[in-house]
Amino acid sequence: MRILIAEDDFTSRIMLAGVLNKSGYEVVETASGLEAWEEMQKPDAPRIAVLDWMMPEMDGIEACRRIRTIETDQPPYIIMLTSKDEKADIVTGLEAGADDYLAKPYDPGELCARINVGQRMIDMQAKLMEARNALAHQATHDPLTGILNRRAILDSLTKELSRAKRNGKTVGIGMCDIDHFKQINDRYGHQAGDEVLCGFTGIIEDNLREYDLIGRYGGEEFLIITPDFEGHIFEKVYERLCKKVAESTIHTKAGDVSIAVSIGVSSGTGTDTGDFMIDKADAALYQAKKEGRNRVSFADSQIVED
Ligand code: GH3
Ligand code: MG
Ligand code: MG
Ligand code: MG
User: Fold this and answer.
1) Residue 300 binned pLDDT confidence (cut-offs 50, 70, 90)
2) Taking the complete model, does pTM exceed 0.85, yes or no?
3) Domain end: 139, 163, 189, which one?
4) Is the peptide bond before 43 cis (omega within 30 degrees of 0)?
5) Ligand 1 interacting residues, C-beta cut-off 6 A
6) For residue 304, what is the DSSP state?
7) Are 161 and 274 in contact (CB under 8 A)?
8) Of ligand 1's atoms, which has the minimum distance to the CA of residue 196?
9) Which domain holds residue 232?
10) Residue 62 resides in a domain
11) Mean pLDDT of the chain
């Protein structure tokens, strides 16, 4: 763990660095508040800072105030070192954003104990952030396939439509439904069916551009969002995806499985709603199924004309 120290007095700085080095910390030494402020703005800044109160140029309080203006979800733990131990000054230090303070001359053992508290706070903060990120991931992803879930892909569609409104471009969506999927479950078992769903999303992801999106709409139905497309390319993307799925073999524990998919495609601009686009894509999907499956049907035929 790296610790930043800011101490203008040379002897005090050497002593402080010595105590911390001895306790196994890597020390970043600075001799003024300004230097400390510069160090703490770096992307890999230390997570604990021990700031002397009285320093020329910029004191510890001002450095602390500035450090607290940095927008981050990993704020550093700041300990102020002060020879002033009057109540009002302590209040000023804590109000400037310090987490703790220690009066000079300090006892090295106490300093290390307080730094350990800081370390515990930082570890706890990291665990909380990890848990928060895991929850956010769970709330937006499908547990089986790992792709976006229904809510998240619909949110993405709303976002893409508002972007289209700003830039005047078109958003395409493809509602995909695996053909005769029930038969795959019946023939190979439900677990193999699950593997096929994962294999299917893998094939699609491998063939999408990085700014295209796929989400699980429900069961064996998936929604693809293709933003910013010109009409003719737009058609080809979905045709290509449909062909790729039909050509691929998905390996499962129950054996190799071939599948096909039907896709209903619609397009919208910023003035359309997601619901309207999905209704149109659903109708096109129904058409693709009716015409024999393993094909793409377009709701807005004008977009495919060059
Ligand atoms: P169609 O070509 O008309 O789409 O026929 P289909 O058999 O694909 O359609 P149907 O709606 O009759 O069946 C869909 C099946 O998908 C039924 C359901 O058990 C299965 N399914 C839905 N979710 C999952 C899942 O998470 N895992 C597995 N293994 N099967 C699923
Ligand atoms: Mg000083
Ligand atoms: Mg279905
Ligand atoms: Mg189906």
Assistant:
1) confident
2) no
3) 139
4) no
5) 144, 177-182, 185, 190, 193-194, 197, 219-220, 289, 293
6) G
7) yes
8) 29
9) 150-305
10) yes
11) 93
